[in-house]
Write a structure and sequence with these properties.
The chain is mainly alpha-helical. It folds into two domains: about 35 residues, no CATH class; about 100 residues. The protein has five helices and two strands. Strand 1 and strand 2 form a beta hairpin. The protein starts with a strand and ends in a 7-residue tail after the last helix.
Length: about 150
């Protein structure tokens, strides 16, 4: 489905997000504000911010999952796990560097991520979930500390 604004046809943001975004950028650069789909622009910006927050939660969940494995499966520790934890920290740090406002959601995001990490533990390990603490045992500072490995 395409919308008509003025004489031009352009894709609807829900039908062709990429095409719609390129067209919207063009209109904004040309300052053709009367032709901009502001409702679609607002909706896309809201979705984008939600996506960034979800990505934060997912990155935290992956890091917490690997730290839990490190802590509760010490017999399996090795260079690969060490590198994986380092990589997860680096990716999480880059995401927060690109989206510093997400830091205001860290505590809430860690709680959600911890719940997700339980499913990852259940899916990928033989660990009994009952041995895990009911709340995330790691602070944000510990999660981001390259020297921190729980014992």
């Amino acid at each position: 489905m395409h919308e008509t604004k003025g004489a031009e046809m352009y894709p609807h943001h829900q039908q062709d997000r990429y095409g719609w975004a390129l067209h919207t950028v063009k209109l904004l650069r040309e300052q053709k504000m009367s032709e901009v789909d502001f409702d679609g622009l607002i909706e896309e910006l809201e979705e984008m911010s939600g996506s960034d927050k979800l990505q934060l939660i997912n990155r935290l969940a992956q890091l917490i999952f690997h730290l839990l494995k490190w802590q509760f499966q010490p017999d399996f520790r090795g260079r690969i796990w060490n590198a994986t934890i380092g990589e997860k920290r680096l990716r999480l740090g880059y995401h927060l560097e690109d989206n510093p406002s997400l830091k205001s959601t860290i505590e809430e995001s860690i709680k959600k991520a911890y719940k997700i990490s339980f499913y990852l533990i259940e899916k990928e390990t033989q660990l009994d979930l009952k041995v895990l603490p009911p709340e995330c045992p790691y602070t944000f500072k510990q999660l981001m500390d390259d020297e921190f490995y729980p014992e």
